[in-house]
Amino acid sequence: MTMALAVIVGAAHGRSTHAIVLYEAALGLGMALGPLVGGTLGTISWRTPFLGTAIMMAIAATTVALFVKPLPKPKPVPLTAGFAALRHRPLLLWSSASLLYNFTIICMLAYAPHALTGAAAASGADYTSLTLGLVFFGWGTALAVCSLALPGPMIRYFGLVPAILIALALMAAMMTVLALNTHSMVMVMTGIIILGGLQGMSNTMFTEAALNATDVPRNIASSAFSGFRFFGGAMFPLVSAPLITLWGAPGPFWGSLIVLTAALVIVATGFRVLPNSPLQRGRIFTRVASSAPAHTHSPGA
């Protein structure tokens, strides 16, 4: 995933915003179809989803080999270039906040299916691998559609930083709803799908923010950002069991609420290190600034 983003941004020829949106939308579409195909194949045998994945990987490799033109060979960079890029405070800010936010992505992928199983048992509802596939088809579809359609209007209207703060706050609210309703299958299903939309929107905005935060070459910035944020996903399996022991079934959702709150604090308190760019300001900010009374001074002031 890290290499794919770096290559796509490198091939965009200055149109990195379009590349990021299409990358995140394609990622979401794959995440939508994966659970549906996997759930369908899983009704045949537990082995068939792995066979289906192997076939899709073969198709992807063949597609790259046949249709992707070789890119110009980039200048050699040291292996430490990605780590060195994180010395830039704006990139480190977005990478750190995204590390915490990525915790919630893995919470959805790794724990939400277990929560759905528990909610189905508590509700007395029928539950199969196809049910799981359909729910996460909804999650992935919301991820794809919202990553494509919502970031642009949100950034234009609110500005980049406020838009990300709004998305993080909405995700925190939905995690609270899930934590309080782990006994309800309808609420868990609805919460998973809504969070897919919010996470898709956030994916695009976080990537856009990180790659426009510094003058570091885009391929290096994207690899540093992606590699760093995946540590957030690595954190989740380590702490999920203690969270369940501490708070029961809602534990991972409460944990996600905590890390989202930490991400909110990081962005809200650290945004001053970001470059002063029109991307940071939306229509609301512009209208407020333009309506502020002008201060006049006498020549002798």
From TrEMBL:
Q: How does it sit in the membrane?
A: Multi-pass membrane protein
What's the domain of life for this entry?
Bacteria
Which residues belong to any copy of the Major facilitator superfamily (MFS) profile domain? 1-280
Work out whether the entry's keyword set contains Heme.
no
Subcellular location as annotated: Cell membrane
Residues annotated as signal peptide? none
Assigned keywords, A-Z: Membrane, Transmembrane, Transmembrane helix
Q: Name one Pfam family in it.
A: MFS_1
Give TM regions.
Answer: 50-71, 91-112, 132-150, 157-180, 186-206, 227-247, 253-274
Q: Which PANTHER family match?
A: MULTIDRUG EFFLUX PROTEIN YFMO
- The name of this protein is Major facilitator superfamily (MFS) profile domain-containing protein
Its ancestry begins with:
Bacteria, Bacillati, Actinomycetota, Actinomycetes, Micrococcales
